[in-house]
Amino acid sequence: MNLNKVLLIGNLTRDPEMRSLPSGQPVVTFGIATNRVYKRDGKQEKQTEFHNIVAFGRLAEIASQYLSRGKMVYIEGRLQTRNWESKDGGKKNRTEIIMEGMQMGPKIGGYDGGGQAPAGPSEKQQPNKEEEKIETIEYPGDEINPDEIPF
């Protein structure tokens, strides 16, 4: 059994760029950055990774409409590497994340980081389906006290 699944939460490094395939299907590309914080020799270090994201169809249209540079986004997808030959004859490749679902991050000023999870529309692209469904997830407004969690 094989698995090719990517889950990322990060911030857009550039605005989504919308194009169309020769078939007319919309495709959008953008980048996100994720940070990893760790300790080295007692000091806190931060490492940033940059990811190339590609989305197709209705999901591409939604990303193009609602996402912009700096916004936080949760991405579900799969890794795919494209290979091509450059104009000078050299071989090139690029590993991208093909987005299959996303959830937009908190609205500006709408999330203070204190116990309440960000809410936003969620879009999940299903293969071989003509219509995608947009779901809205409502999180409880009450603060969660870690001492009340039974585990």
What does this structure look like?
The protein is mainly β and 151 residues long. It has one domain: Nucleic acid-binding proteins (OB fold (Dihydrolipoamide Acetyltransferase, E2P), Beta Barrel), CATH 2.40.50. It is built from one helix and eight strands, in the order ββββαββββ. It has a five-stranded mixed β-barrel. Strand 7 and strand 8 form a beta hairpin. The protein is globular and about 55 Å long. The relative contact order is 0.18. About 23% of the residues have low confidence.
- Count the beta strands: 8
CATH superfamily: Nucleic acid-binding proteins
- What number of structural domains do the residues give? 1
Strand order across the largest sheet: 1-3-4-6-5
| Helix and strand sequence | EEEEHEEEE
Give the class-level CATH name.
Answer: Mainly Beta
Radius of gyration: 18 Å
Mean pLDDT metric: 78
TL;DR of this structure?
This protein has 151 residues and is mainly beta. The chain has 1 helix and 8 strands; from the N terminus they run E-E-E-E-H-E-E-E-E.
Give the SSE map:
Elements: E1 6-12, E2 17-20, E3 26-40, E4 43-56, H1 57-66, E5 72-85, E6 91-104, E7 121-124, E8 133-136
Parallel strand pairs: 4-6
Antiparallel strand pairs: 1-3, 1-5, 2-3, 3-4, 5-6, 6-7, 7-8
Region (Disordered): 104-135
Keywords: DNA-binding
Organism: Candidatus Giovannonibacteria bacterium RIFCSPLOWO2_01_FULL_46_13
